[in-house]
């Protein structure tokens, strides 16, 4: 039998060129789903080649999901397949280190437009289709960073606070519709994130990190089980529990110790 006949359905994964996104796509492919994967880097094509080894169909689309044009291009690519989306894994995200006033405003906007605006645009389109069909699963990649005021990572943490909160609200709104919403909240994970965020000279950038394959598996299984949220790793669970009872000012001070660049301390 060919993959068209054996595929469980279609999974769309954003930010899938590497890291957690790639591993989420791998989970879906291993589970028998055909894939549409998207990222704004050319390496999304290499990721597609590797994912095809699992025997399902893989469409790779290189788009910038921080832009309306990019999201529209992805939507058009999905629609061209003529198939409903069964799983939407909204994982695309961008980090940014350093003090807020020292960051470039264009880079700040890019983080917000990738992590929030583009994500909302895509989820609004696909979510409406899922609700109309009465079935579908949505996974957001939030972060435990969303529980902490992120000194020296203020914009990124703020966007993740938004995603964490938004996912819970959307989950409640979609109760009884057949569409489930799950939020995966990882901690520091061994991906390209810290390099792209220019945070390699920070304590958190240099510390030991979680395996993206482990994080993705935890998130994928939570989504398939219809859970509302999942924090990957016991250490991160402890940090999240502590964050819920710690004053915001204290959390911001603690976060500074993790994220302040060495260059800012002199």
TrEMBL record:
One Pfam family linked to the record: adh_short
E.C. numbers: 1.-.-.-
Gene3D superfamilies with a match to the protein in the record: NAD(P)-binding Rossmann-like Domain
Residue numbers spanned by region Disordered: 246-266
Residue intervals of the Ketoreductase domain: 9-191
CDD domains xrefs: SDR_c (cd05233)
GO MF terms held by the record: oxidoreductase activity
Keyword Oxidoreductase: yes
The entry's keywords: Oxidoreductase
UniProt xrefs under PROSITE patterns: ADH_SHORT
InterPro entries, A to Z: KR_dom, NAD(P)-bd_dom_sf, Sc_DH/Rdtase_CS, SDR_fam
Basic and acidic residues bias locations: 257-266
Source domain of life: Bacteria
Family from the record: Belongs to the short-chain dehydrogenases/reductases (SDR) family.
Name the record gives this protein: SDR family NAD(P)-dependent oxidoreductase
Biological source species: Rhizobium helianthi
Lineage: Bacteria, Pseudomonadati, Pseudomonadota, Alphaproteobacteria, Hyphomicrobiales
């Amino acid at each position: 039998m060919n993959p068209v006949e054996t595929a469980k359905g279609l999974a769309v994964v954003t930010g899938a060129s590497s890291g957690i996104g790639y591993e989420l796509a791998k989970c879906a492919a291993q589970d028998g789903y055909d894939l549409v994967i998207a990222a704004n880097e050319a390496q999304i094509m290499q990721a597609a080649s590797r994912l095809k080894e699992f025997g399902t169909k893989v469409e790779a689309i290189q788009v910038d999901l921080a832009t309306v044009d990019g999201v529209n291009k992805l939507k058009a690519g999905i629609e061209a397949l003529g198939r409903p989306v069964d799983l939407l894994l909204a994982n695309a995200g961008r980090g940014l280190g350093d003090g807020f006033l020292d960051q470039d405003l264009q880079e700040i906007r890019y983080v917000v437009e990738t992590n929030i605006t583009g994500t909302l645009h895509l989820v609004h389109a696909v979510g409406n289709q899922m609700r109309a069909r009465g079935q579908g699963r949505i996974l957001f990649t939030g972060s435990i960073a969303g529980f902490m005021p992120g000194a020296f990572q203020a914009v990124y943490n703020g966007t993740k606070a938004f995603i964490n909160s938004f996912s819970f609200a959307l989950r409640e709104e979609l109760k009884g519709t057949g569409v489930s919403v799950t939020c995966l909240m990882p901690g520091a994970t061994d991906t390209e994130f810290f390099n792209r965020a220019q945070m390699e000279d920070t304590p958190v950038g240099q510390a030991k990190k979680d395996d993206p394959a482990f994080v993705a598996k935890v998130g994928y299984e939570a989504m398939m089980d219809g859970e509302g949220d999942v924090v990957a790793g016991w250490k991160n669970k402890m940090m999240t529990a502590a964050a819920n009872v710690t004053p915001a000012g204290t959390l911001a001070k603690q976060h500074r110790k993790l994220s302040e660049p060495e260059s800012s301390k002199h």
